[in-house]
Design brief:
It is an enzyme of class 6 (ligase). With about 200 residues, this protein is α/β, with parallel strands linked by helices. The protein has four helices and eleven strands; from the N terminus they run ααβαβββββββαβββ.
Length: about 200
Amino acid sequence: MPHLTDAQLDKASLRSIALARRAALDAPARAAAAERAAIHALQWLGAVRGEVVSVFAPIGGEIATDPLVERLRAAGAGVALPIVLQAGKPLLFRLWEPGEELTASAGPGRFSIPAPPETAPAVSPDVLVVPLAAFDARGNRLGYGAGFYDRTLALLRRAKRIEALGYAFAVQQLAAVPAEPHDERLDAIATDAGIVCPAED
């Protein structure tokens, strides 16, 4: 059995706390929260016409992104979805056109995730809307342990200016999330309670 660092053990326990809070939300609360989070996200992003925004297809109780997708498209943004290529590799992004049927693709761990067909164009997004298990006010994100978004953000940030917007329920905010050297900080987090904008250190 591999040895776990204190940071990894902390992350596992904090992840459990945040996911339990998320799971406790009922369906009406989730639907209302998704609408409010979408409004806050668009306010923070500002003009997105002509930009490519990667969203995510929610799995395992994540906040719904349909209200956000509708608003992004109405504002003139292109919408993309992430594709998991293989463990240890950055994500690929494919454009998702309105009305285009999604197909199941390999996801992290035991999950499969809806994705555009392989014929959809691969794109380099200008904005990443990032799923998460937990976050804190400093912009530290706790994912699900596979590191896909950390690797992807590190790669994209070396190549271009990109905005990383966490997207979650407000109940997923914790007092502090441990950050390791490879963890990529978010520029902001959009929730049903508003926008969390990390202060500069």
